[in-house]
């Protein structure tokens, strides 16, 4: 299904809404996903508690399996808790480095004891203001960016260009 999208800079994009059958059910996706392999640095936000008196950021690493304008699928050796917030740093094509991107863990599926698939949804400034605990917002500070429309546009352009490249390579075979 196609849908026309207006960006904040006035550009109009004709976006394909992916339809995918999983388990016999038709699923519609708002953003096209691109399968990639790229490292990602993740920092899990942790609140203060009895064991951990100071809130902080715990570092983890993983590999991006796919990316879209809405989030990432990450493979990690560590399981991360659902509904928690993370700050990510990732590289798209060896040149575009996105840092301080805030996301929320939507799911964590364990494939084995050492392989976990983590679905992370990007957070906008509005998401952070409305849903992220004040303690986390203080941790995020000014070094972290919400997933702004500018970054989403950059990411969508990257996904679109890679899909066009994949299609032209496939047709030239």
Short description:
The chain is of the alpha+beta class. The chain has helices at about 125-130, 135-140, 150-170, and strands at about 1-5, 10-15, 20, 25-30, 35-45, 55-65, 70-75, 85-90, 95-110, 115-120. It has a six-stranded antiparallel barrel with strand order 5-6-7-10-9-8.
Structure description:
- With 173 residues, the chain is of the alpha+beta class.
- The chain has a single domain (33-171), classed as Thrombin, subunit H.
- Helix content is 21%, strand content 46%.
- It contains three helices and ten strands, in the order ββββββββββααα.
- The protein has helices at 125-131, 134-140, 149-171, and strands at residues 2-6, 12-16, 18-22, 25-29, 34-46, 56-67, 71-76, 85-91, 97-110, 116-122.
- The strands form three sheets. The protein has a six-stranded antiparallel β-barrel with strand order 5-6-7-10-9-8. The protein has a two-stranded antiparallel sheet with strand order 1-2. A two-stranded antiparallel sheet has the order 3-4.
- The longest helix has 23 residues, at 149-171.
């Amino acid at each position: 299904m196609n849908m026309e999208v207006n960006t904040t800079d006035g550009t109009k994009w004709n976006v394909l809404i992916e339809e995918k059958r999983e388990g016999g059910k038709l699923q519609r996706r708002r953003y096209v996903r691109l399968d990639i392999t790229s490292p990602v640095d993740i920092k899990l936000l942790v609140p203060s508690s009895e064991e951990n008196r100071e809130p902080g950021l715990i570092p983890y690493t993983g590999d991006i399996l796919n990316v879209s304008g809405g989030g990432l699928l990450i493979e990690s050796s560590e399981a991360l808790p659902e509904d928690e917030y993370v700050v990510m740093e990732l590289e798209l094509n060896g040149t575009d480095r996105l840092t301080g991107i805030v996301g929320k863990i939507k799911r964590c599926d364990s494939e084995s004891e050492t392989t976990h698939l983590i679905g992370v949804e990007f957070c906008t400034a509005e998401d952070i203001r409305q849903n992220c605990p004040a303690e986390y917002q203080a941790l995020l500070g000014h070094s972290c960016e919400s997933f702004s429309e500018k970054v989403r546009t950059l990411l969508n352009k990257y996904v679109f260009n890679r899909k066009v490249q994949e299609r032209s390579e496939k047709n030239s075979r």
